[in-house]
Design a protein that fits this description.
CATH topology of the largest domain: Rossmann fold
Number of helices: 11
Number of strands: 10
Number of domains: 2
Order of helices and strands: EHEHEHEHEHEHEHEHEHHEH
Bound molecules: pyridoxal-5'-phosphate
Oligomer: single chain
Radius of gyration: 19 Å
CATH architecture of the largest domain: 3-Layer(aba) Sandwich
Length: 332
C-alpha cells in the first residue's frame, strides 16, 4: 500500500476493531446483509475513529519532540477527547480550544477532556473557524515561551491523519476476506472529511471495488465532498499511492444534517433507538445516528439495494449521547 509502512506510528490501541453482522437492524431497514465496523470500540480513550489518525499524528508530534499538543472543536468533540487521552498517554501537555463561551457545567466529552487533564480555552465566538485562528496564536505563545507546540487541525483532518484511515481500508479488507464477505458499499458519517478521504485512498491503493459513501453531518455535501477530494489527493500523494481522484469518486449524501452540526434530528434519534433496540448498539446524535438515518433512506429509495452487502462504520461518539437527558415515559 504505497509507503504507508514508512510512517512513524505510536500505537494507542489493539487492532483490528470488530466487524460484526447486524441482521436484526439489517432486516428492519431492508438490508439483510448489513455489517457494522465497530470503531466505536477502539480500545483507547473511549474510542472512535479519531484514534486511527492520532496514532500517526502523535508519532509525528513525538518525532518533533513537542511539549504541548493543541487541537480544538466544540465542547462535545470526540476528536478533542481522544487527542487529550493520547496527549496524557504520551505524557504531553494538552490545550483544547473550543468555539463559543464556557458552559456552566461540563458534560459528556467536555467533562472527559477535563478529566484527562487538558486545559480548555474558549474563543468567545460561535464561528467554528475561530478555533483555527486561536490554535495558531496559542501555538505562537507556547513557542515564545521556548516550548515546542504541535497543532492538530480540527478533526485531525490532514494528509497524515488520513493515513490512519487508509490503513483501516486494509484492516476491513482482511476481515472481509476472513468472513468470506464481499462488501459492495461502505457507509459512514462525514464531518471534517479525513476518514472518508483515507478510506478512499486506502481502497484505491488496494484496488478494492467498494463504493465508499459518506453522509454529511456538518456542512453541505458539495463542500464536504470538496474537502474529502482534496484530502484524498493529499493522502495519496503523501503515501505515494498512484491514484488520480476525480470529483465523481467522492460520494457524499446531503439531507440529514437537520438544523445544524451537533443538533439532533428526529430521523437521527429514531435511528439511534432502532440500533439500540435491534442490536444493543449505541450510536450518537451528532454523527452516527444521522448517518444511519441516511443509510435507511438510501435503502428505502433503492439507492442501496437489499441484495447488497453493506458495511456501516460505527465511528463512535456515544459519550455525546451521555450528555443528553431524556423525557421519562410517565404513562408506564
Ligand atoms: C469525527 C467523527 C466523524 C467524522 O469523521 P471525519 O474524519 O471528521 O469526517 C464521524 N463520527 C464520529 C463519531 C466522529 O467523532
Amino acid at each position: 500500500m504505497g509507503c504507508v509502512e514508512g510512517f512513524a506510528r505510536r500505537q494507542l490501541a489493539p487492532w483490528p476493531t470488530p466487524l460484526v453482522a447486524a441482521p436484526r437492524l439489517g432486516r428492519a431497514i431492508g438490508l439483510p446483509n448489513l455489517w457494522l465496523k465497530r470503531d466505536d470500540l477502539i480500545a483507547f480513550g473511549l474510542g472512535g475513529n479519531k484514534v486511527r489518525g492520532l496514532e500517526f499524528l502523535i508519532a509525528d508530534a513525538l518525532a518533533g519532540d513537542a511539549d504541548v499538543i493543541l487541537t480544538g472543536a466544540g465542547t462535545q468533540s470526540n476528536h478533542v477527547r481522544a487527542t487529550a487521552a493520547a496527549a496524557a498517554y504520551v505524557e504531553r501537555e494538552m490545550i483544547a480550544v473550543y468555539w463559543g463561551s464556557p458552559p456552566q457545567r461540563a458534560v459528556g466529552n467536555h467533562a472527559l477532556t477535563l478529566m484527562l487533564g487538558a486545559t480548555a480555552v474558549f474563543t468567545g465566538s460561535e464561528d467554528r473557524e475561530s478555533v483555527d485562528l486561536r490554535l495558531q496564536s496559542l501555538a505562537q505563545e507556547v513557542r515564545a515561551q521556548g516550548r515546542r507546540a504541535y497543532v492538530i487541525p480540527r478533526g485531525g483532518a490532514c494528509a497524515l491523519g488520513a493515513v490512519g484511515h487508509a490503513l483501516a481500508a486494509r484492516e476491513l479488507m482482511e476481515q472481509a476476506v476472513e468472513a468470506q464477505l464481499a462488501p459492495d458499499v461502505v457507509v459512514l458519517a462525514i464531518g471534517s472529511g479525513g476518514t472518508q478521504a483515507g478510506l478512499l485512498a486506502g481502497a484505491r491503493a488496494l484496488a478494492l471495488a467498494w463504493r465508499i459513501e459518506g453522509v454529511s453531518v456538518s456542512r453541505p455535501a458539495s463542500e464536504a465532498s470538496a474537502r474529502v477530494l482534496a484530502l484524498a489527493r493529499e493522502c495519496a500523494d503523501l503515501a505515494h499511492v498512484d491514484a488520480a481522484f476525480a470529483e465523481h469518486d467522492v460520494v457524499v449524501h446531503d439531507g440529514y444534517i437537520g438544523d445544524g452540526y451537533g443538533v439532533p434530528t428526529p430521523a437521527g434519534d429514531a435511528a439511534i433507538e432502532l440500533a439500540a433496540r435491534t442490536e444493543g448498539v449505541f450510536l450518537d446524535p451528532t454523527y452516527t445516528g444521522k448517518a444511519l438515518a441516511g443509510l435507511i433512506s438510501l435503502a428505502h429509495d433503492g439507492r442501496i439495494r437489499s441484495t447488497e452487502t453493506v458495511v456501516f462504520v460505527h465511528t463512535g461518539g456515544a459519550p455525546t449521547l451521555l450528555a443528553r437527558d431524556r423525557e421519562t415515559d410517565t404513562k408506564r
